[in-house]
Amino acid sequence: MGIWVKRNGLTFDHVVASPAVRVIETIDEFVKGASAQVDPNWDRRIYLASSATLMDVLHDQADEHKNMLMVGHNPGLEDLVFDLCPDDGTSPLRDLVWEKYPTAAIARMELNIAHWADVERRCGQLTHFIRPRDLDPDLGPEDE
Questions:
Q1: 104 and 26 in contact (C-beta within 8 Å)?
Q2: Domain CATH code at residue 77
Q3: Residue in 25, 29, 22, 24 with CA at minimum distance from that of residue 5
Q4: Is residue 126 part of a domain?
Q5: Strands (E), 33-112
């Protein structure tokens, strides 16, 4: 996934993440592929958080950060996509999130906000959704 991010020019200037061991391991592998230097802000609120709590975490971010990577857990991250990106029938990517948001998937959203404190429901657009199985079918569910 890190290699895909690097190849597609997705960038981030801040990482906020759950301090869970699995998240730490995921970030370690991701940064190897992305060739990125990160100093995550470990935020306990992200651990098993609801979408509402994740929005609170976003509200608390400094405006100097323009492209943030949030690493956490489902169902909260999946619900955050649904809450931020309207269900207006125009996003096939949103439909893929509905189908399955697996471990290590990346959902990139552009938010129509001036400040992180302005994050609210339906302020975003899902621009990318990539799952490990999209890069390697052997990583997909066994029943497919």
A1: yes
A2: 3.40.50.1240
A3: 29
A4: yes
A5: 41-42, 68-71, 106-111
Q: Is 16 a member of any domain? A: yes
Element (H, E) at 125: strand 124-130
Query: Tens digits of per-residue pLDDT, 69-104?
Result: 999 999 999 999 999 999 988 889 999 999 999 999
SS3 content of the chain, % helix, strand, coil (to 5): 40, 15, 45
On whether the pTM is more than 0.90, the answer is yes
Q: How far apart are CA 108 and CA 8, in angstroms?
A: 12
Closest C-alpha among 78, 84, 75 to residue 48: 75
Instruction: Answer whether residue 98 is part of any domain.
Output: yes
User: Total structural domains in the chain?
Assistant: 1
Domain span including residue 39 = 2-136
